[in-house]
Write a structure and sequence with these properties.
Chain lengths: ~300, ~350
């Protein structure tokens, strides 16, 4: 019969450090007003993935006069353009162009300013370890979305799955930061020219919604890339897009309405750790006259009477 | 939709309008208007598409606000004059408030912002009911109030014709174009309300007939934007030939029916020494005419690129009933020579 293990007594050095801490607590020194305590601005717990806050919220804002002046000039120019566009035609294009157009290139990556229209994010926001970067390809002809996927979930006790990277277009804005929408009602197919690495990507289209609980409503479809050195022309009719909310496919499906589209995005979340890359030449819409399907999915009657 | 529920809702729609027509007490009239609103709400949201639900919500909020304003104004009138009779309104404050409430109900400028968005979210049939049937009950009330020397009606009317003209200029969606056309026509109706209510009724009835034809034309082509009208020449060539005439009738060109109300209204305004008003209204009708012409240009006068070159495709019989469309198109195009008889019939 062995004696049960007794917890060891803490060493003397540890005891002295505890004494020092107690002394500090008893006589707190007033810190200089350099930055907020984390407790003030973020609450006691900082989620993994959130940046450390060591400034007051107003400190990063630039209150300079020139910035305000530039902002006013920019917005007034946009406002003037809106007024003058009305004289030309709907959305600034003459009606003949609306009637004749069958293809429209929405995003092509021909210069650094085209990257400003896109936002990349990965699960680092929730504390994961995937990395994603967006840069212009060679000769400024394409954009390259590359990085590393890592499906290790963050250790915050509540996240079970992780490992995603995404690129999403920014919401188009009219003057004074009002939301503007894309009107793709004269088209019925999404046309992309991509060169992937064989991974299955997902295309997300977000439309304008009204209620706040619809803000995560996204229409998705898959983009299976081939890994080869050859470019891949992908044409996906808009009737194939299905509705999801926060990633979960909804039971009540309806077709995607094209008259108020906000953003488009590409997501990778295929649970395969490792590097990835996707090269995009352009993203456009086109009108396929042979495609007459309105919606690809049937909605079965739920709770049928027996 | 379950046919029983559909029948109940349509019956409710009819009953609401009838109650408002038959009422001489403000509360009964308000009840009829509320029944109309409530009966059309499930019809609007029946497709469960988020845009339809958004349109339904916006419609409900605006109509409820208008009904509340109406109730408040009639209560104020009861307090000030001691009676609830619709035709005995004498105090100017409730009259003005009721005019504004009914203007919000039908979508007159400057209370028009909800109409294009709501119509855009609906399918064409429900949009048709909204544009035609739902205007009858508020107009019944407006015709009975007859404010005597009110400049508010002139302002509402002129603003509506201008907003309806300008707003519809840059639209490619057909339902929004029809919404702005509705606003413009309602403006014409309101302009002449205080001088000759029978002309308002005439304009309302011709507008209903013309809009009915237009909606049915679009429904037959299953088109909701200008580009979708492009293939109608192959599917229904006779309709493609007549549709521009229907649109020009909406625009008010002689010798089509739509000219009749505009001509009589301008004549009445000139008789009342309101020549500048008449001029502004006539000029704003030109703006509306521009977008009607644009629609007929896209539909009939040009051939948009499509894959139907060569012989016309197999023209299958449409599943939609064409008799209502035929009758209303006839009425839209050919009623101008009957102007004296029509005016005599509708004299209030």
């Amino acid at each position: 019969m062995s004696l049960p293990k007794i917890a060891r007594l803490p060493s003397v050095r540890l005891l002295s450090s505890i004494h020092q801490q107690q002394q500090q607590l008893l006589l707190p020194s007033v810190p200089p007003l350099t930055g907020p305590k984390r407790a003030v601005s973020q609450g006691e717990y900082r989620r993994p993935g959130q940046p450390k806050v060591d400034k007051f919220p107003w400190q990063p804002i630039n209150f300079g006069f020139s910035k305000g002046f530039e902002g006013v000039k920019k917005h007034l120019a946009l406002l003037k353009k809106e007024f003058s566009d009305r004289w030309v035609g709907p959305q600034g294009k003459p009606i003949l162009e609306h009637m004749l157009e069958q293809n429209q290139v929405l995003w092509e990556f021909r210069g650094p300013e085209s990257l400003e229209q896109w936002t990349v994010s990965s699960d680092q926001e929730i504390g994961g370890q995937s990395e994603v970067h967006l840069k212009l390809g060679k000769n400024h002809n394409t954009c390259l979305l590359y990085g590393t996927l890592s499906s290790t979930p963050p250790r915050d006790g509540e996240t079970r799955y992780s490992g995603y990277c995404t690129m999403r277009s920014k919401q188009p804005l009219a003057s004074f930061d009002r939301k503007k929408h894309y009107d793709w009602s004269s088209f019925n197919t999404l046309h992309l020219r991509v060169r992937g690495d064989g991974r299955p990507w997902m295309i997300n289209i977000a439309t304008e919604t009204y209620f706040s609980h619809q803000k995560d409503d996204i229409y998705n479809y898959f983009l299976y890339t081939r890994g080869g050195p050859y470019w891949q022309d992908v044409k996906i009719p808009f009737s194939k897009f299905f509705l999801t909310h926060r990633g979960r496919i909804q039971d009540d499906q309806h077709p995607l309405w094209l008259d108020k589209v906000n953003t488009i995005g590409f997501t990778l979340g295929d649970k395969a750790d490792g590097p990835f890359q996707l090269e995009i030449d352009f993203v456009g819409v086109c009108k396929d006259y042979a495609h007459t399907e309105e919606f690809a999915y049937e909605v079965y009657k739920r709770n049928p009477e027996i | 939709m379950n046919p029983y529920i559909l029948a109940t809702l349509l019956f409710g729609l009819g009953l609401g309008t009838t109650i408002t027509f038959a009422s001489s007490h403000w509360l009964l009239a308000w009840m009829g208007l509320e029944m109309n609103t409530l009966a059309i709400i499930p019809l609007m949201a029946q497709h469960h598409h988020p845009r339809a639900v958004e349109a339904t919500t916006k419609y409900f909020l605006t109509q409820a606000t208008a009904a509340a304003m109406l109730l408040f104004a009639s209560t104020t009138n009861a307090w000030l004059t001691g009676q609830w009779d619709i035709q005995q309104m004498t105090h100017p404050l409730p009259i003005a408030l009721i005019t504004l409430a009914l203007a919000l109900k039908i979508g007159l400028a400057p209370l028009h912002s909800w109409l294009p968005e709501v119509l855009q979210g609906l399918d064409l049939t429900t949009g048709l009911i909204l544009s035609t049937w739902q205007k009858l009950a508020p107009f019944a009330l407006l015709l009975q109030i007859q404010p005597a020397n009110s400049s508010i009606l002139i302002i509402l009317g002129l603003m509506s014709t201008l907003v309806g003209g300008w707003g519809g200029l840059n639209q490619t969606q057909l339902r929004k174009i029809l919404a702005y056309s509705s606003i413009a026509h309602l403006g014409w109706m309101i302009l002449v309300l205080q001088f000759s209510p029978s002309l308002t009724l005439l304009t309302l009835l011709t507008y209903i007939v013309m809009t009915f034809s237009t909606f049915l034309v679009f429904k037959l082509n299953k088109s909701t934007s200008i580009n979708m009208l492009a293939t109608s020449w192959a599917k229904a060539p006779a309709l493609t030939a007549l549709a521009p005439l229907v649109l020009l009738s909406l625009g008010g060109l002689p010798p089509l029916t739509g000219f009749m109300p505009k001509w009589l209204i301008l004549q009445e305004l000139a008789k009342q020494d309101l020549a500048p008003t008449a001029t502004v209204a006539a000029m704003s009708a030109l703006l509306s005419l521009y977008f009607y012409l644009r629609l007929s240009y896209a539909m009939t006068l040009t051939m948009s690129p499509n894959n139907l070159t060569g012989t016309t495709p197999w023209r299958l019989q449409s599943s939609q009933l064409t008799l209502p469309l035929a009758v209303s198109t006839l009425a839209t195009l050919l009623l101008l020579p009957l102007t004296p008889a029509t005016v005599a019939l509708i004299t209030l």
